């Protein structure tokens, strides 16, 4: 097994430091394979499913190869959904904060004018194909200065019918660019367009990132109408439990959910990047002490949390990919204890969450029943393993650590 470190791959000290602050110290297999080639400027085609660690495989080279003084926009990441686009932006920002790079997500459902203004001033755009074409048609900016083009989950974009839009977007980028192409499959159309878009690429094929399990976690998926999610969450929080970590997609969503829970008589605190260091430490201290047993957090903020005694992790907003899922749910079931991971999903999210569960090897029917990993199947992350119902327990000792 390779023991290459991020430094061995050519990653700068500044980025390594940012990774360490996020609790990331060793590269996954796909990262070891791709990062060196990508930092060197070579095109890459990677067969890499959800949960493999692919986001950092392109995010790190992107940050290393971009500079604040470069023409804007200089890098473009295409992603199939709004949820994945926003998650990629969060991940890139976390390792780019020392580089003064501006990163913007471009997706539908929000105002065009403000989004266009932010996008035109950004070094890195992370966009869904449809909204990006809307902005290009309005003359908000051009793609003739793009130096790096990333297609993430390309097979999924093709399944969603984005092939014509992708072709037009790629044609609008300079031919003398670097292309990084990531797809869960390289068969059929995905393989054909990968070879068309990339020039003399390095080709890598990897499966989901795996880790040895150190605990047993029950995985549950609860389908509920979007407008009834809060009520469903309140029901879950009313069950026998210990400390509970609730994940949401956005900072505003965290604050809004805390207020809505309070209206239902549930006391919770929020933790996200807009809170000051002192506010985050106070929220974590209250949670760690049990004064408040529900902490609502974004993915980025939660990376600095290390608390013993979390019995439940609830995905109020489903994660964008399997890698995020295993990092979230791995917060419970530690130190030999059992834990429960619950994901709330709307009917519209059924397909995406089913695909995520399949990638992680979870048995499921996605009708609110438990999903358990088959006996002997490797777990993708510490704390993700065979399911068993959680029992009420009070650990004799808890510890908390926050980074940054």
Quick one: biggest sheet? 7 strands, parallel
**Which structural class do you get from the secondary structure elements?**
alpha/beta
CATH classification, class level of the largest domain: Alpha Beta
Number of domains: 2
Give Rg in angstroms.
Answer: 21 Å
The CATH fourth-level homologous superfamily of the largest domain? P-loop containing nucleotide triphosphate hydrolases
Order of helices and strands: HHEHEHEHEHEHHEHEEHEHEHEHEHEHE
Distance between the termini: 32 Å
The number of distinct helices, counting runs of at least 4 residues, comes to 15
Q: Mean pLDDT score, rounded?
A: 84
Query: Strand order of the main beta sheet, please?
Result: 3-4-2-5-6-1-7
Helix content: 25-40%
The CATH topology of the largest domain is what? Rossmann fold
Question: Can you describe this structure?
Answer:
The longest helix has 15 residues, at 82-96. The chain is built from 15 helices and 14 strands. The chain starts with 12 loop residues before the first helix and ends in a 33-residue tail after the last strand. The chain is α/β, with parallel strands linked by helices and 404 residues long. It is globular. A seven-stranded parallel β-sheet has the order 3-4-2-5-6-1-7, with helices on both faces. The protein has a seven-stranded mixed β-sheet with strand order 10-11-9-12-13-8-14, sandwiched between helices. Helix 2 (29-39) runs parallel beside helix 3 (54-65) and helix 3 (54-65) crosses helix 4 (82-96). The chain has two domains: 13-205, Rossmann fold; 216-371, Rossmann fold (3-Layer(aba) Sandwich).
